Structures are given as C-alpha cells and as structure tokens.
Fold these 3 entries.
Entry 1:
Amino acid sequence: MTAAQRRRAVDHLKDRRVSERRACRLTGFSRSAAWYPLKGRDDSALRSRLKTLAERYPRYGYPTLHSMLKTEGLVINPKRTYRIYREEGNRKINDALPSCVFLFQASPFQRQWSKKMSKVEGTVLTERQRYWLEQVRA
C-alpha cells in the first residue's frame, strides 16, 4: 500500500467520523505525515519539451535527452526524466540489426579446440558453448 493510498484511507475514515489517531493507527500511516500537505509538481513544461525532443531525435535515449533538458535548465534529476519519458510512452529506436547470418572463418586454434572438446566424454556444455562449437565445425 503506497503512502498516497494510506492518506486516502485516512481521509475516508475521517469522513466516516473516525478520529485521526485511530485512522492512522488502523492504516499504519504516520500522524505527522498526515498533517503535511501534498506537494504537487507541475511537469507540463518538462513533459511537452521532452515529447518534442523525443519526436525530433527518435534515436536518442533518455540520458541524452536528459542532458539536453539539463542544459536548458528544465530538469535536475535523471530519475524524474526517466519516469516522465516512460509515462509518455517514448522508447529509443534501436539501430536495426541486419537480417543476414554472420559466418566467420574459424582459426586453426579454434578448430583444434573444437575437436578436443568433441572427443571429451561426459562434458557438460552450456547452450552458448554448443552454439559456438557448431559454428566452428561448420
């Protein structure tokens, strides 16, 4: 249960004529925290600028966009930039990998190693090692 949910539960119980002390005790919310007003942040300027930058530079991730916003003086905390970046649904467009299969020429040492490994009985190989051996043998 988050602090905001606990605060709402305390307010609901207070509306039902339950004392604040008892409502805080029931919800596990601190009475001193119940007295502090919530600090709302206005992220509208930051959101709009981040959205325009993300549309203009689709290959940039949030760290690069954060540094751009920081030079403009709009943001200080990278975690806040990351949160807003994800809430807006932005994702970095990764460089597309080619769809071809990379074939490589195995060196004599690699061929010798693969022959030795294939002769060892009872050798337990990981999937990565098996894949590599198949590529070397080909």
Entry 2:
Amino acid sequence: MKTKSFFTSFLSTLPLLTAVLMTTPVVAGDPVNTEGVSGIALGGYAGSRPSRPRSGLHAEANLLAILENVRTCTLCVKHLPLGPRPILQMQQEARILIAGQAPGRKVHESGIPFADASGNRLREWLGISSEVFYDPTQIAILPVEFCFPGTCKSGDLPPRVECAPAWRETLLKSLTHLRMTLVIGQYAQAYHLPNASGSVTSAVISWRDHWPSVVPLPHPSPRNNIWLRRNPWFEEQLLPELRLKIVELLVTP
C-alpha cells in the first residue's frame, strides 16, 4: 500500500526448506525453538517444494538479496543501545502481514518476533498456533523498525526515522499474495493508515472502514490491560470476525 504521512520523515540458495539469515533454521510445522534463533526468517515448506515459474524464482532471488542487505544494515547503529539485530519474518507467499512497532528487549535477545507476553496475547487474539504464526509462507511480520530502539521512562522508544524509508516499501512490494494487514499500535497506524485521524482507539473503533484489507489493532502488550477492560467491544465484536477471516485466508488456495 502506498502511504504518505509524517512517516516519510519518521520513519543464497533458492531450493531451500527454510532459511534464517543469521543462525538456526525454523521449519514450518516444527516446534519453535526460542533460544539461539536470531535475525530474519525466510521460511519455507516442511515437505517438497512446488515448482515455480521463472518469474517467481527471480522474485524470490531478489527478496533474498534484499533481506541479506537488511541483515547487514547499520543505518541506526550509533543510536541502538544493544546494537543492530534486525528481526522480521517474511516470504512472498504470505497472505497476512503483521505490522508492528519495533522489537522489544526480550525479542531482541531471542531473535524471534513476538516471542514475549505481547506475542502470546496476539496469537490468542488471532486464534492461531505458534506453528502457523511462525510460518513465513502464511504470516509476514514487518515492524516499522526492525531493531530494538531502546527504552525511556514510559517504555520502549519509538521506531527510529531511518528504518522505514530505507526498507519498508521495497519489502511490502515483495508480498505479492498479501490479503490482510494487521496494523498494531500508533506507529504502524501512522504508516499504513496515514489518513486516519485521532487516536489508536478511534482507528480501532472504525475497523470496518478498512475491512478486511487493513485491520487496526491496539498493541497486545500487558500495558494495555486497562484499555481492554474499558473497551470490551474489541474482544466481543472485532476479534470473532477477525478469527473467522484469518481461517478463511489461511485455508483458501
């Protein structure tokens, strides 16, 4: 999706089963090991890989090259307290994109996106298992910033301005089968819903305006427990519809 907002300033190996471009492979369907896995997951198939036309192979080769460049990116290195460690997950076949803010400290340490309390709640919201969640052929995970930005008194710092302009649009264009984007929190909302006015709450209340291509969600962090108690309609109305749609997207050829 072409987006213009303040975010314009705010902001190898083809036949493989699964590759994580830094360390341990994660194979679709296998239990996810939360220790020693880092970097960029480019997932694949637990069984034999179907043949692809030349155009598809060319696109995959381009994506691998882009992800390798992301892995070695140092644009923000002087500003990252724990150093660069890009954490994202994608393969061009993915139908659902999870657009979040930035990895937290725990995710930085594990190298696995949403491997924390927020991720547990998000998977519960979506009604999917960890195996499905970490299958890059089904779910892409692209935060607005790929590295942990550090913390301040109120929590994690906002995503840095360098990351999204450098990589985001190029990677989004590689998701050629995308059917739904889950926009989590204010920073992802600013990028993917630049014309939405007001707060995250107002965007989530208006979720039917963009359904089903873009779905704004509050952040699943435990810090938002009060918000969830004050807005019971979210779990009563939005989440049941979302779960049904996700099932449809994941099982429909």
Entry 3:
Amino acid sequence: MKKHKLSGIVTTVILLLTSLATMAQPVITQQPANQTVLEGTTATFNIIATSSAPISYQWYKNGAEIGGAILDSYTTPATTLADNGSNFSCVVQDSNGIRLSNPATLTVNAGEGPSITQHPEGQTILTGSTATFTVVATGTPTLQYQWKKNGVNISGAINSSYTTPSAILSDNSSVFNCVVTNNYGTETSNDATLYVIDQSTRISNGLQVLYEFEDQEGGIIHDVSGNGAAEDLTAITPNRIAWTPTGMEAFDEAIVRRSVQGSKIVQNCNTTNEITLEVWIQPEWIYQNSGRILTSSISDVDGNFTILPKGDHYEFLLHTTKTNGNGEPAIASTSGTQKLELTHIVYTKGTDGVAKVYINGELNSTGVVQGVIEFTNIYWLGVASAPYGGAHWRGM
C-alpha cells in the first residue's frame, strides 16, 4: 500500500508541472528594433513571439493603440518630421496571458532636394567622335537623372554622365542638359552646347604641330601631329594650370611653352608664305585684353604670330615684310565673338595674302595681310600667356 501511494504522489506532481507549463504566457524572442528613415518614407517594425497557444498582436504608438495593427509586423504610413522620436511597442497575447515588448524608437531625418555642384560643359568635337557630359549633384534620398537633347528626353540616359553616339554634322549646336530629381525636389543643369566640326575640314595637309590637351596629368603637353620631331610644350608654372574633363585650364601667370626656342613652323611658313592656326578655347571672362592665347614671340613687340583677345572679339597678328615687329596691323573677328563658351577659332592666311577668320566653323571675317611671312627662329611657341612672362590669359 505504501508503494502505491508513493507512486500516486509522484504522478500528481508530474501532472501539476505539466499543467503549469501549459499555462505559461507567450515568450518574445525578438524585440522590435529602432528604425531610422527619411521624411516621406515608411518604417517597418517586427516582433517574434512563441507560445503553445494562438497569439494575437496589437501595436501601439506612444502608448496609443494603432487601429488595424494586429500582425507581427507593422509598417507606418509615410513619415513626417513630427513622427521623429515616436515610440512603438507591441502587446503579444494568448489565452494564458500577455507580454509587452520593449519600445522601439523611430528617428525621422529631413530629406534634401537635389543641388547641382558641377554643371555639364560645352564641347567641340570632330564628326565621328563622341562627347561625354557630366553633372555632379548632392541630395537624399537617391537622385534620379534624365538627360535631354534640345529639350527632348534621351532614352536610357539616366545616369550622372551621358556619352553621345558618334557625332554627325547635324548634331552641331545641339544643347544638352540634365534634370536631377528625388522625392524632395528637382533641379535642372545649365545648358551645354555641342559643336561638331567636319572631320574632312580639319587641318591635315602640311600639319606642323598638334596639341590635343588630353594628357590629363603632369606638366607636359604632347605634340601629337606625327610630323617629324615632336615639339612638346612644358608648363613652366605647373601650379598655375589644372586638368579638367575637357582640357587644360590656365590661371593667372600660367606660362606654357616650348622649353627651347625655335620651331619647324618658322622655316616651313617662310617657305610657303601661308599659315593656318586653329584653337578651341573657353575664356574665364570676357574683355581679357592682350593675353596670349597662342603665340610665337619673345617680347611684347617682337612676335611671329599671335592670337589674343581684344575687347569683345579676337585679334590675329602675323609678322611679314610689311607689318611691324609684332605683326600689326591685326586682322580681327567681329564684335561679340568673344563669349563665355567653348569656341572653335581658325585663322588662315594664304599665299595671296587673304586672311580669313572662322568661328565655330563659320566664316566670320576676312582681310588682307600685306607682304610675305617673315618669321624669326629665336622665338618661343607658347599658349595661355606670353612665353617670356606677362600678357596672361585665363580660360581653357
């Protein structure tokens, strides 16, 4: 009899423990986590709980019940700055009792509309070449980009940079810009004009020197003409130049010239009595007077040839047997041709003495240079300033 009683007591204890375990409240195994979002976006809070019985959920915001928020996950409506610092918690309940989660804090940060810090720049290219336009902007959340050509969206051009297809003449003077957007605003870049020069009209016959300014580093500008010994230019003041996506920018007192005097240009032009000078430039400001864009000279009054800004236009000096030591009188482009944009300039003087100036591929002015070319071989070839110092020009 005693043995049976002991067995019954043990059985009773086991049954009692089992009943207590069955009646335990739900257990929260993962608490809701703090969330940080941008204004206008949503936040999602999650909770994980276990129980031997069915569980129900009810979410609260700052202690107030949220209607319809009865799942193990809750997503807020689009947030506002007024929601910043709000606390979210969840009551988990089954038939045996309830559990209250830890509070999770919502941080809402203000969004920032687009702000363009670098606008696309105009470019001049040859037919068959491509041009790449780039915009740099800040803003949160993620920015979206849409490039336009002449006011029309370019299909698929949705990145911060856009590279054109191979250019044809009909692309000349096309205008490109980019619209940058996010949830907080829209900003449109400045226009960038594409100038396209007919490849077939580019100087090739009798080419003496060619500087494409694609070095993009260092202080040497290479002559890539392929005509005899290269006549590279050297930045005598390397701290006064900077490389940009479109070429070399010259600051005040920049001196870029051949490291030695003389040039094959001298003998060849003296022999043929003709010359063509071609440059692509973008002035930093208008009305830069007397700065040397391109020159072969040794002083302010002694030069073989010079392209320089003058008021709102450009002048072209060429030394002949009938001009003074600096090549005057000059041939000038028309008023208003010096602009704050990338400009293609060609000056040519034939054996008949007729000089022509082309601006962006169009004939701009003509004149007659008396005498025959008479160049001296002790002058420096330089760009952006007088190669002997002074007469500085600023731009690209």
